[in-house]
Amino acid sequence: MNSGFAMTNSNKTNDLSHRYLRALRKHLEQGPRASVRPAERLRHQALSAGVGTLALARIHERAVKALQATNHSTGRGLKMVRQADDFFVRTLAPIEKRRRAAVASDGHLNRMNVALSLRSAALAAANRRLKQEIVRRQVVEKALKRSERHYNQLLEQSRLMQEQLRRLSHRILSAQEKERRDISRDLHDEVGQSLTGINLTLATLKRESAINTRDIGRRIATAERLVEKSLKALRRFVRELRPPILDDLGLIPALHSHLKEFARRTQVRIRFKAVAAVEQFDNEKRTVLYRVAQEALTNIAKHAQATRVSVSITSLPGAIRMEIHDNGKSFQIQRAFFGKRRMRFGLLGMRERVEMVRGIFAVESARGKGTTVRAEIPFNHEGQG
User: Fold this and answer.
1) What DSSP character marks residue 375?
2) Measured between alpha carbons, how far is 306 from 179 in angstroms, rounded to an integer?
3) Which residues pair with 365 in a beta bridge?
4) SS3 assignment, position 303
5) How far is CA 57 from CA 78, 169, 239, 283, in A?
6) 225-234 residue pLDDT tens
7) 3-class SS at 228?
8) Are 292 and 322 within 8 A, CB to CB?
9) How many CB atoms lie within 10 A of CB 241?
10) Cα separation of 119 and 93, whole Å?
11) What is the rounded average pLDDT of the residues 352-372?
């Protein structure tokens, strides 16, 4: 098939050579009046036959030699060669122009291909970097998830430890309150009775010694005063530990007695009001409210320099609220909670007691408005109150 194809191309070239020779001869015969159409037709035929510039030049050279062989005039021969070259240029120029355009187009296409290849390489590199970044982010995401799980575990452990500490604190407070109650009863029942017996004995001795020397009576009177002073101190100590009236009569009488003693000792005017519904609380919740009031009043006496204090116990839907307000100096609550002074432990103790019975504790303090301590304690789910 290759030889047949070569023969076909050769036949086309030979045919084009004969046509070129005839067209060139005719062009030379017509001279300056010669038309350019024969050259255009030959150009189209050459393009159709796939004849390139070099092959067309050879065809032109053979045609010129053939015409020179038939023309023996030297002058005429030179003129003929120039006219033949002009015919060849007319035939070849558009083909060469197209070839150059094709070469230029190929060059542009090659440059475009190179640019496209560079762009493809850049995109491939960017794609690789993107894949690496995706892998890195996936690794970071996994690490973050592990860290988040670890953090959640630590948070849960911290929550459990905090809950355990809170329960421990509640048990300590409960044990402390029970211990206070036991000590208070022991002091009241044993020491108090003993001192009362001593006082009665001394009173009897005093009457019997009336007929004797005055020195014995004076010594007995001194002893009576000491015993009476001890009894007062003992009663105050018992009230501070745990007043028996709290267990015997309830919260309102216990607070009333404590506030009366506080006003006598500090010369601070007290206003007190309470709803009877508070006595429906169990002993633990009444004790919490009593201790909050007791500690708040202690802080007022030590730090507030107040002249008036109001204590109110009011009803809320499903709860009881107690507020202790004074007109004394204000303080920074956060600093008090996190500082190292005695007040910090008092505030923390009040808050722990209230939260122990699932209540809400709050403190408000502002310059010129004094301080308010607030405790809200809910009734239990059995429908108390």
Assistant:
1) E
2) 33
3) 371
4) helix
5) 18, 114, 135, 127
6) 777 777 777 7
7) helix
8) yes
9) 19
10) 38
11) 92
Structural tokens at position 182: 């036991």
Question: In terms of CATH, what superfamily is 247-385?
Answer: Histidine kinase-like ATPase, C-terminal domain (3.30.565.10)
Which residues, 6+ apart, have CB-to-CB distance to 174 below 8 Å?
A: 284, 356
pLDDT at residue number 383:
40
**Residue 99 three-state SS:** helix
Treating both helix axes as pointing N-terminal to C-terminal, what angle do 37-49 and 2-30 enclose, rounded to 10 degrees? Answer: 170
R_g over Cα of the chain: 61
Residue 60 contacts residue 16 (beta carbons within 8 Å):
no
Angle at the Cα of 175 from the Cα atoms of 169 and 176, rounded to 5 degrees = 85
Sheet of 269-274: strand order equals 269-274, 308-316, 319-326, 370-378, 360-366
Q: Is the dihedral of CA 371, 350, 267, 272 positive or negative?
A: positive
User: Cα dist. 382→57, 228, 247, 317, 354 in Å?
Assistant: 120, 47, 22, 15, 19
Domain ranges of the chain: 2-121, 247-385
Confirm if 314 and 296 have CB atoms less than 8 A apart. Answer: no
Backbone φ and ψ of 370, nearest 5° = 75, -155
Distance, CA of 25 to CA of 47 (rounded, Å): 21
308-316 vs 269-274, strand pairing mode: parallel
Residue 79 CA, distance from chain mean position: 97
Give the E-state strand segments of the chain in sequence order. 269-274, 308-316, 319-326, 360-366, 370-378
Pairwise CA distance, residues 31 & 55, whole Å:
26
Asked if residue 376 lies in contact with residue 316, where contact means CB atoms within 8 angstroms, the answer is: yes
| Residue given tokens 């023996």 in the structure block | 72
The answer for residues whose C-beta is within 8 angstroms of residue 355's C-beta and 6 or more apart is 166, 361
Q: pLDDT tens across 5-58, in order?
A: 444 566 777 777 777 777 777 777 776 666 667 766 776 777 676 666 777 777
